[in-house]
Amino acid sequence: MRASWRETLLSYAFLAPALLLLAVFTFYPLLYGSYLGFTQYGGARFAQGLAPKWVGLDNFRTLISDPLFLTSLWNSLKYLLVVPVLQLASLAVAVLVSKELPGMAFFRAAFYVPVITSVSLAAVMWEWVYNRGGTLNWSLNLLHLLPQGGAFGWLNNPHTAFWAVMLVTFWRGFGYYMVLYLAGLQGIPTELEEAAVLDGASAWQRFWRVTVPMMRPTILLCTLLSTIAALRVLEEVLVLTGGGPLNSTYTALMYVYSKAFQGFNFDYGLASAAGLVIAVVALLLSIANFRLFRDAQGGER
Amino acid sequence: MSLVARSAARPAVRRRSPRRTGRAALRYALLLIVLVFAVFPFVWTLAIALTDKTAGGSIYDFPASLFPRRLTLINFAQVYTTFSLGKYIWNSVSIAGMTVVGTLLVSSLAAYPLARFRFPGRQLIFALIVATLVLPGETTFIVNTLTLKQLGLLGTHLGVVVPTIAGAFGIFLMRQAFLGVPTSLLEAARLDGASELTVLTRIMLPLTRPSLAALGIFTLVTTWNAYFWPMLVLSASPDLAPLSVAVLKLKGQFNYDPFNVAAGALIMMVPVLLVFLGAQRLFMRGLEGAVK
Question: Taking CB atoms and an 8 Å cutoff, what residues of chain B touch A100?
Answer without folding.
Answer: none
